[in-house]
## 1
Amino acid sequence: MHFLVIGAGKQGSACALDLLGQTATKTVILADKDVGHLPAFLDPWRGKNLEPLQLDLNDEAAVKAAIARADGVCCAAPYFFNAKLTKLSIDAGRHFCDLGGNTEVVLEQKAMHGLAVKKGVSVVPDCGVAPGMVNILAGEGIRRLDVAEKVKIYVGGLPQHPEPPLNYMAVYSLEGCLDYYTTPSWVLRNGKRTQVEALSELEELEFPAPWGKLEAFHTGGGISTMPFSWEGKVQTMEYKTLRYPGHIAIIKPIRELGLIGNEAIEVEGVKVRPRAVFIAASAPVLVKPQAKDLIALRVDATGLKNGKPAGTRWQMVDLYDEQHGVTAMMRTTGYSLAITGIMQLDGRIPRPGVFAPDEIVPAQPMIEDLAKRGIILEETAL
């Protein structure tokens, strides 16, 4: 198998690492505008199966040439490139998966379904942890029920050792995090698709010691197109982000004061974006390269089976990999992307077309492949 991984940031590098560790992988081309600062955990593969490639995604000819050299494309580039890269991959007859995260872009990709079928190409957007892993679990939970009544999904990337003022550290782009804090969340209520305000409907969950109580609230993007796909088939569906208690009490007033807004304002004769100022001011506090993170996850699907209440819960707390220096966010996101790309090439994703993860990725093989990588999803009946 020959892979092109687009995006050499944290998630793309983790995806490349996982692909390189598979015996069936012959080559991994890791492409980015800057490949001069790849993480140390990729050093053993340099000059062997790994080829760093400087690539400008605005150079269509160069992108086409890179895609033509691979059997499959795993994309960890910013989401606004995904529709264009999907089209180029389909045109080239190459399988494509990405980290997604923007519902409107995914709907653009799904509009290319017919073209992908005609070319015999598999396209799976939203292949990280959320969206991605949680969608696959939720879809499996729904299919196990005769009547699916409620799907509740919770995910949080957190520091193992929280520190004030926010008890949070940036486990991915601060810009992306703040985007989710300000974007309405798609949910299902009474079987109908609607939107709710980000940071709303605060609740508390209990996770195993030593993590204990976490708070949960709505954020945008976490389940992408699931409310569109399952409308009329599930009564209640929602996604909430997990944080340590007290986070929402600080970040919500910051948002209400306009300090993370995206619209430019004039300050002393200069146009500035409040969010850009907030990120510049807070990054020294919230970006902690040496700190160890965790990913907490819970997916509940409940309803009726044979006329009786039934359901399934999947729960996970995954930790920073100290041996390889790979964060929990990189593991759960980058490895999930890699597994999806492998499934596209080895036939476990058998049908061509553009499908969301919950529509096409087989849950049990995904769970088993994650377990081989030490990412353990504990399943209990509800």
Note: The chain has a mean pLDDT of 96.
## 2
Amino acid sequence: MTGRVSYKDAGVDINKANLFIKKIKPIIKTTSRKEVMGDIGGFGGLFHLEIEKFKDPVLVSSTDGVGTKLKIAQIMNKHDTIGIDLVAMSVNDIIVQGAEPLFFLDYISTGKINVKNSVKIMEGITKGCIEAGCALIGGETAEMPEFYKEGDYDLAGFCVGIVEADRLIDCSEISVGSRIIGIASNGIHSNGFSLVRKVLFEEGKYDIKDKIPGLAHSIGTELLRPTKIYVKPILNLLKSLKIKGMAHITGGGFIDNVPRCLPGSLRAIITKGSWDVPPIFDIIQKEGSIDGMEMLRVFNMGIGMVIVVSGKDVNEVLERLEGLGERAYEIGVIDKRSKKQRPLSFV
């Protein structure tokens, strides 16, 4: 080998990475809360927790990615909403336990930094953080040539929230007769996209720009609908109403997620047809000849968040959610469970 070799020659452009950081600093500052200290670019993200506001605080954390929904964003070359999905997947997990999100960190890995696309990703992440009421205090962008194909990238997110110990939702107060309310999703959200791509693109031979009867937009636009963030409506309910338990309907759909919020002696009975199922799910099921129970195990089927409340609170919860702009439905009830019964059934 002749001549000197630089890091840029190996595929990593430090100057481009620094330009990216410079461009996103003012975007990230829009998420700042007064508790945040320091500036983006340090070795660690700083967050000043005013502990005197709490009596017995519990920190709740979550980490997640977006999965192969990223493939849709990359095919469409549309990167401004996928960051919302990233934030939603973590903040929706911690709100299930009653925790208010405090701060968020992101990780972007790519073969080669595309400053324009990366800024769009960060715009989505900051929008998600603002919607969730948390601060974006740091992150990492890793340029990994030869590990990712050109144009490919992956995302991961990390969220920390807080809740008073005596207000932690651990599902222990769920009892026979408790009612189940489902809050509508925004479509597929961020789960099941490997199956979606196989059914629609590999077997169905559809193009991302195609329109299917029943959909208001192209397939690509429909699939990129960002995951709903349920933090603010749930926190609103918690101010004056008792929520006994919650389940974020993500990977594993209804079948795997609803039982996660149930004591072992109880089961959830879900009434089919009690909520509106978005057309995209019917299209996927028909195109792939997918069994109904498989659909319920892979997808949210139009319900992104399940909450369990007392029967006396059902109407008020539904009215409050409607006033907050959410579509919500009473979809089931809690009953006793025998040793032979499954924790979740449909009627």
Note: The two ends are 71 Å apart (CA to CA).
